[in-house]
Design brief:
Elements: E1 8-17, E2 24-29, E3 43-46, E4 49-56, E5 61-65, H1 67-72, E6 83-88, E7 107-117, E8 120-127, E9 141-144, E10 147-155, E11 160-165, H2 167-170, E12 183-188, H3 190-203, H4 212-230
Antiparallel strand pairs: 1-2, 1-6, 2-5, 3-4, 3-6, 4-5, 7-8, 7-12, 8-11, 9-10, 9-12, 10-11
Length: 231
């Protein structure tokens, strides 16, 4: 679990594709600030993707990237010297400055345009998987390359949303250096998914035609009465 508050920007110093399984191993450098309490097996968010540390020293660490992760994220487009957002997994003492981020990328988004607004920048994104748009709401959260950002505008018909990067954030995340046509990893707010599932469960129909949740409640009451009568 992460907060979406990027701690540092690291650099991809080495990529080693694994021909036997189609995955790859990444070596990330310039990461000493987040490795002082690191252990093998720890989780680190790399551009919003939760990856497991397989080796590390004072300033670098290695992670393995599975084929499925390469297909679903933008990690497959990384090259030597690419910058990446880094965040350690939360601890009991972590301040929740962003929102609950799993590090499970839902899709990638393409930058449609970038417009300056004073010293801020407004980015417009279009997701590859349009179905995630139902979880993106104005003033809600969205995670882009691991950074928790506030949605400023959504157009469901045209299939895009916008976020604004203030001057301070521009210095702290890799998104600010990207151009139209570049891709970002997208994780939508997981709370929306839970709410959707709960609502679907309530309105789905049971065998009697009543909402399934009501049918289950009735069944539990009947079972309890039958057990009580049998005693």
């Amino acid at each position: 679990m992460f907060t979406g508050i990027v701690e540092i920007i690291g650099v991809v110093s080495e990529l080693n594709p694994q021909s036997e399984d189609g995955g790859t191993t990444l070596t990330i450098s310039n990461a000493s600030e987040i490795l002082d309490d690191c252990h093998l097996g720890d989780s680190i968010s790399v551009n919003g993707t939760c990856l497991t540390v397989t080796a590390f020293d004072k300033s670098t660490f290695k992670v393995g990237v599975a084929p499925e992760t390469l297909r679903r994220t933008n990690l497959g487009s990384l090259k030597q010297n690419s910058n990446v957002n880094l965040e350690r997994a939360v601890s009991a003492s972590t301040r929740m400055g962003g929102h609950f981020v799993q590090g499970h990328v839902d899709t990638v988004g393409t930058i449609l345009k970038i417009e300056p607004d004073g010293n801020a920048l407004t980015f417009r994104f279009q997701p590859r998987d349009k179905s995630v748009l139902r979880y993106v709401v104005e003033k809600g959260y969205v995670t882009l390359d691991g950074a928790s950002l506030t949605v400023t505008k959504v157009d469901d018909e045209e299939g895009w949303w916008e976020v604004m990067l203030i001057a301070y954030t521009q210095e702290k995340v890799v998104t600010a250096s990207k151009k139209p046509g570049d891709e970002v990893n997208v994780e939508v707010d997981q709370i929306g998914k839970y709410v959707e599932k709960a609502v679907e469960g309530y309105f789905s129909k049971g065998s009697s035609g009543e909402p399934a949740i009501l049918q289950k409640m009735v069944e539990r009451i009947v079972d309890a009465r039958l057990k009580s009568a049998a005693k």
